[in-house]
Amino acid sequence: MAFGFPAAYSQLTPLNNLPQKAFILNAITICKKLNWKIINIDENELIAISQNNKNTWYETISFSFDENTAIISSSSNGNQIYDRGRNKKNTEAFLDLYFEGAKNSSDFEIDEAVFFEQIKKENVLNKEKAAPQNITSFYSFFSIFTPSKGYWVTPILIYINLLVFLAMTFSGVHFFKPEFQNIIDWGGLYGSMIYEGEFWRLLTSCFVHFGFFHLILSCLALAYVGLLLEPYLKIWTFLATYFFCSIITSLSSLYWNKDLINAGASGAIFGLYGILLVTFLFKTFETKINLKLLIIIIVLISLNILYGLKYEIGTSTHIAGFTSGILFGFILSLIRKRKDYSMALISSLATVIIACLFINFKNSKVYIYQVMEYEKRMQEFTDMEKMALEAYSTPYGNSIEENKESVLYMIRDRGIYYWNENISLINELDKLYLPKEIHEQNEKLIEYCKLRISLYELACKKIVENTAQYNDQMLTLNFKIESILNQIKKAQSKS
Question: What is the largest CA-CA distance in the chain?
Answer without folding.
Answer: 135
